[in-house]
Amino acid sequence: MIMVLDIGNTQAVLGIYAGDELLAHCRLATDRNRTADEYGLLIQSFLSSKGLNAQGIKAIILSSVMPPVVGLFIKMSRTYFHLEPMVVGPGVRTGLPIRYENPKEVGADRVVNAVAAIKIYGPPLLVVDFGTATTFCAVNGKGEYLGGIIVPGLGISAEALFIRAAKLPRVELTHPPKVIGRNTVTSMQSGLVYGYTDLVDGLIRRARREMAETKENTGDIKVVATGGLAELIAEQSQEIEEVNPVLTLEGLRLIYEMNHDAL
After folding, report:
1. pTM as predicted
2. Model confidence at 185: pLDDT above 70
3. Does the pLDDT of residue 218 top 80, yes or no?
4. What's the alpha-carbon Rg for the chain, to the nearest Å?
5. Which residues are catalytic, by number?
6. Helix (H) or strand (E) holding 222
7. Is the pLDDT score of 262 beyond 60?
8. Which fold would CATH assign to domain 103-251?
9. Domain boundaries, given as residue ranges, for the chain
10. Considering the domain 2-87, what is its CATH architecture?
11. CB count, 10 Å around CB of 93?
């Protein structure tokens, strides 16, 4: 078995694979105040709850946009699993040509998502990842990473309203019954959920038009969504065609196999 970990700003997503079969997965809060021991015990408890033996983990691969937390997971891997983890970054093969002006600026999670989406769906495509920030990643028909779009995540937007507007409460992120709210909570939910959905759809349409103008994109540009709030937005979206909640985990598995086979 291998363990794959994607460490985001808000949550870390963990998966356990046997070959190409995903045996179990979960989400953990990303907290730089936690210790390596706490993460180790949490993960061991998760494995036990799924009837999996920690000693069966033979390799670990992780990607992260949280440098302060990476060290905690590396220490956890060494202490609790006696393994040196593979960290997605310079020197790790991904098979993904990157046409960003500075390839080093592309987050590891975006690379991992693109690798998985190309393998599963084929290019050209757009990948929308609903995390702390919502990222849109464009891959042309040749399987090259073109670039993307970054906007504040839905959770950040909701929290900003609560923090900066004295009379507005925290609200559950869910679809209200109608667009025109009849109270403060449903009015906020409408603006957040329906407004954010239209933001996403509008950016997808603009990106699709721009990509269609280039000769590398001759087929339909598929739109795939992932991340914690993907299902919520996809329910109302007119542009998202597929939701894959484990896309990042699949990408990590593929990158591990790519590098393991090269050893």
Report:
1. 0.90
2. yes
3. no
4. 19
5. 109
6. strand 222-227
7. no
8. Nucleotidyltransferase; domain 5 (3.30.420)
9. 2-87, 103-251
10. 2-Layer Sandwich (3.30)
11. 11
